[in-house]
Amino acid sequence: MSFTLKEKMLSLITVMSMVVGMGMLAGCSSSDNPSGGGTAPEKADLVVYGKVFTSEGNQIVEAFAVKDGKYVYVGDKAGVRDYIEAGKTEVVDYTGKGLVMPGCGNGHAHYSMGYALQSIGTIVSKEESVESFLTKVVPGAVKKARDLGMKTVFGFGYDALEFEKNMPTRQQLDAICSDIPIYFADEGAHSGIFNTIALVNAGIMKADGTVLKKEISGVEIEMGADGTPTGFLKEQAQTYVRSFLDNENLFTVDIAKDNLVRVQEHLLAEGYTMYLDGWTTYFFNDNFYKAAQQLDEAGDMKFVLGATYEIDSWMDVDAMLAKAVNAKKYASTRVKTNWIKLFMDGIVETGTGFVEPLYPDGHQGVANWSEEELTDITRKANDKGITMHVHVMGNKGVTRLVNAYINGGKDEMRNTLVHVYSVSEPDYQRMALHNIYATVGLSWHHFTDKMQESLPTMVPAGMDVKGYPLKSFFDHGVNVSSHNDYPALGGGPDDPFGAMEIAVTGDFYGEVGKPWWTEDCLSREQAITALTINVARQMFLENERGSIKEGKYADFLLVTKDVLTCPVTEIHEAKPAATYFEGKKVFSMNN
């Protein structure tokens, strides 16, 4: 049989097509077996089936395998079977039970402070009146302090907006206890109430009433009709007085370690496996750093802790930066120590956020640092490998801080804005261009109907209908991570799924309020991204944690609901059925 040239060419093309096709089939097979070459993969310690949201480009897969605490396979059910060794590999089939997702992160909170207050101080209910505060809460706190042999009466949580209508005075506190310093912080830790001996110890006044200081770092000390301090101090003035308390005995390493164990239990039960502590030196010592390092060295650390060294505007900046650098010695596998924390301003709703235009009464707020000071601190910190982590609320404060980060900082250091009530449009773009991060309260994106009615009288024009931006950061390409600011929750929930529902709806299930600023709400996928991989990026952990990807640590949750598809008003009902850290179950709701 003879063939024409054309027929021979067609035959050759057909054969080549078959060879290529066989090669493609072989390629598909090897993708199911990542080891390739027909060699069976190493058997896994754990295999999980289910609907798995990876936080890698909104990808959803069917299964993954874990070996020695890390993901070794992420893909479909067929591919994961090669990793199972009968009788040895633990298999968890979570199909149809909810969602499997990465462990969540909390990009800024104060669990160290919150749990310390529970163990050594007194928590004040937000519903507490001034009368009951003075007749019940303070006397009870004094008794607790005396029973424990403490040299400070310590408390937290009064409602600043309500108390300021009839703020307790130092004289009223003196009538209850005059020989031990008393300090109570408001729910956001931006103001405090002190008795006379606390002010005397801090050099604010003499016992006979002589006034020694009328302001601290630009913050005026409130004076009464008699010309002496009332005992009520705001912002950096109250942190200054607090520094004169008996902090070393108030918060020892043993107390810090006990608190840290309880913090860990809290975090894992809510599904957090990463957490950046926003005020690690709240008691003006390194004891929380020491406790965390000791816990990790003992093998008992079941989450990653980020620690920040606070610098207040009344401090010697260079001396404090040296201390922050020295604190790096406490770093370990699960303890990260490369941040400093500053307060740029206060809170917009209470009139201390630094804003433009002005508040209805014509003032601009409180700016704790000049732009020159912030630029200098940023340059020095970044040069020493320390990232800026700065509380800022007002748009004028944001602009000042962004200027400082751009002019003094290094883009690769991921300098961060924390909280953020309002942002001017050009600043979004500059943040994205210079790799400036934002960590924001997903759970803060709501207001009661009553509060929405009151906002126009409290905040600058236009800010009553906009504040706490979320989607705007995503739209401009800014890395936005979630925080809850515990215990300063702003009336919202502290768990990730309660926060997620608010971020998606603009409404809080626990209050009466119409959805607020809905055009800046997030999609469900964006909310999970802010809760997972974006926190990992904020903490420089994205190559190790924050998503379900081969080679990363296996930190993940089995969630009781599929929060991607359930009714949006049911997202907050979701809980971790189990939390895994480095491939080990560290929390189960059944235990």
Q: What's this model, at a glance?
A:
With 591 residues, this protein is an alpha/beta fold.
Structure, explained:
The protein is globular. The longest helix has 28 residues, at 5-32. Helix 12 (317-326) links the parallel strand 15 (304-310) and strand 16. The protein has 591 residues and is α/β, with parallel strands linked by helices. The N and C termini lie far apart (79 Å). The protein has an eight-stranded parallel beta sheet with strand order 6-14-15-16-17-18-19-20.
Task: Provide the fold topology.
Blueprint: H1 5-32, E1 46-53, E2 60-67, E3 70-75, H2 77-80, E4 90-93, E5 99-102, E6 104-109, H3 111-120, E7 122-123, H4 130-148, E8 153-158, H5 160-163, H6 170-176, E9 182-186, E10 191-194, H7 196-201, E11 215-216, E12 219-220, E13 232-234, H8 235-242, H9 247-250, H10 253-270, E14 272-277, H11 287-297, E15 304-310, H12 317-326, E16 335-343, H13 371-383, E17 387-392, H14 395-408, E18 416-419, H15 425-433, E19 437-441, H16 449-458, H17 471-475, E20 480-483, H18 496-505, H19 524-531, H20 533-538, E21 556-559, E22 576-581, E23 584-588
Helix pairs in contact: 3-10, 10-11, 13-14, 18-19
Low-confidence stretches: 1-37
* Mean pLDDT figure: 92
Helix share, percent:
25-40%
**Secondary structure tally: strands:** 23
Distance between the termini: 79 Å
Percent strand: 15-25%
- Count of DSSP H/I helices: 20
Shape: globular
Q: Compute the gyration radius: what is it?
A: 27 Å
Q: How many strands, which pairing sense, and closed or not: the largest β-sheet? A: 8 strands, parallel
- Structural class, please? alpha/beta
Strand neighbour order, sheet with most strands: 6-14-15-16-17-18-19-20
